[in-house]
Amino acid sequence: RTFEGSLFQRGAIANVLCGANKSAYFNLRSFLELGFTGLYFISQAATEAEGKKWVAGVAFTPFFNRSLKRLLLLPEYANAEQHLSYHQLLRDTYNSISDRTHTRGMPHGHIELNQSNRPQFIEKSLIDFIEMAEQCCEALAITLAIQHPIVLIPLPMDDKFGLNPPLSGFLQGYDVDCLK
Questions:
Q1: Contact 114, 120 (CB under 8 A)
Q2: pLDDT the model gives residue 167
Q3: What pLDDT is recorded for position 108?
Q4: Are 68 and 91 contacting, i.e. CB atoms less than 8 angstroms apart?
Q5: pLDDT value at position 107?
Q6: In which residue ranges of the chain is pLDDT below 50?
Q7: Distance of alpha carbon 32 from alpha carbon 28, whole angstroms
Q8: Whole-number Å distance between alpha carbons of 19 and 116
Q9: How distant, in Å, are the alpha carbons of 13, 35, 112, 160 from that of 25?
Q10: For the purposes of burial, counting CB atoms within 10 Å of the CB of 32, is it exposed (0-12), middle (13-18) or buried (19 or more)?
């Protein structure tokens, strides 16, 4: 589902650059949800059978907050919670983006985001979107790092693979420095 998540991410960027801010947030929320759901299903909080049913389209996508609570029962997340306030970070990011997608009042509606009743590019809206996108990426990267701390060991992927690196989840030095 990595490819589908990247489509949501690209759709969000394309929409915000066109001034379709509300649509951009819908795509960004889908990116966050799909990324989190994938990480949830590869964790010990979900069974392999649950994951297979979801991938096959037989089971519904688990609710975000319910999945987060199940993750926090795992020792690695409980330990991280003490140092990172992981639950708060993920919950605040998800709730903030949901405020925009579900229009929690006028401050999160089309008119406020576009300063008009039609799509148009607004620099402040772009900056707000970029900050939200960074929060989403940070939340997913932290979730991945908690589950698989080995990704925090920088690897010289460019030196080893050149322009054709594997889809591995491993990070290069500059990626690790950014995440830390």
A1: yes
A2: 66
A3: 59
A4: yes
A5: 62
A6: 1
A7: 6
A8: 10
A9: 9, 15, 13, 37
A10: buried
Residue located via tokens 């140092």: 83
What is the amino acid identity at position 157?
M
> What's the Cα-to-Cα distance from 179 to each of 59, 101, 116, 175, rounded to whole Å?
33, 27, 37, 6
Distances (CA, A) of 146 to 61, 72, 86, 89: 22, 11, 10, 14
- Cβ atoms of 50 and 59 within 8 Å: the answer is yes
Rounded CA gap, 30 and 12, in Å? 9
* Of 93, 110, 103, nearest in space to 15 by CA: 110
Q: How far apart are CA 103 and CA 98, in angstroms?
A: 8
Q: What is the pLDDT of residue 27?
A: 92
Q: How far apart are CA 144 and CA 77, in angstroms?
A: 11
- Per-residue pLDDT tens digits for 108-159: 565 676 666 777 778 888 899 999 999 999 898 888 888 888 888 887 777 8
| CA atoms of 101 and 87, how far apart (whole Å) | 21
Q: What is the pLDDT of residue 136?
A: 92
Q: What is the dihedral of CA 158, 161, 162, 163, to 10 degrees?
A: -110
**pLDDT value at residue 135:** 93
